[in-house]
Amino acid sequence: MMTANKRIRILLADDEPNILQFLELGLLSEGYEVQTAQNGREALEKVEAFKPHVAILDVMMPEMNGFEVCHTLKESSEKIAVIMLTAKDEVGDRVKGLSLGADDYMAKPFEFEELLARIQARLRNQFPDLLGSVVYGPFRIDDRKNEILYQERVLELSPTEYELLKYLVMNHGAVLSKSLILDRVWGYDFGGENNIVEVYIRSLREKLNDKEHRLIRTLRGAGYRVDLP
């Protein structure tokens, strides 16, 4: 399990109680401080006292929608990272949210592990001093040093190997397709061949002494999955 810094505060705003409870329990189990709101006005009221580092906002909320809340937050403080959630995966909604200052955008349904990765990305970019090293089983990831330790041994990694291994470890237990890995590690505009993923996976296995592929598993036709002890 991840060991997160308990100083990191996250505000969840969604009018669907089941989603709100699921996300709250998941983030609490990861070590974050969490408060929730079921409408836009309540979210803004809680920001005043709670002062979250990250606000996760559903677009379709009563009182004030997520777009309005995002706009208000970004006008008052650039220090709040905003991740928008929506049931729609429409380009127009995404453009509108980003134009209002949202830092990221996720369409429902989504995997909780992906949300965790998006939160970590926002924290690295906007609150790097809050993040110490993060532990996942035998791995310790330290973004301040751009360093990953495996069983307390520092791995000698290229920048791309570092990003790839971090993405795999942070999403441990989830099956990650080659196309998803390319999008997240190399970027949407990557124009090379997707066999580059196989090349880098092979290199990581050598550096991890994972000769039998028990750590980074290949699921034929599906992708890769990191299994942690």
UniProtKB/TrEMBL annotation:
Domain OmpR/PhoB-type per the UniProt entry, residue ranges: 131-228
DNA-binding region: 131-228
4-aspartylphosphate PTM sites in chain numbering: 58
Record CDD domains: REC_OmpR (cd17574), trans_reg_C (cd00383)
PROSITE patterns the record matches: OMPR_PHOB, RESPONSE_REGULATORY
Record-level GO BP terms: regulation of DNA-templated transcription
Domain Response regulatory positions: 9-123
Keyword set, alphabetical order: DNA-binding, Phosphoprotein, Transcription, Transcription regulation, Two-component regulatory system
Protein name: DNA-binding response OmpR family regulator
Species: Paenibacillus phyllosphaerae
Upper taxonomic lineage: Bacteria, Bacillati, Bacillota, Bacilli, Bacillales
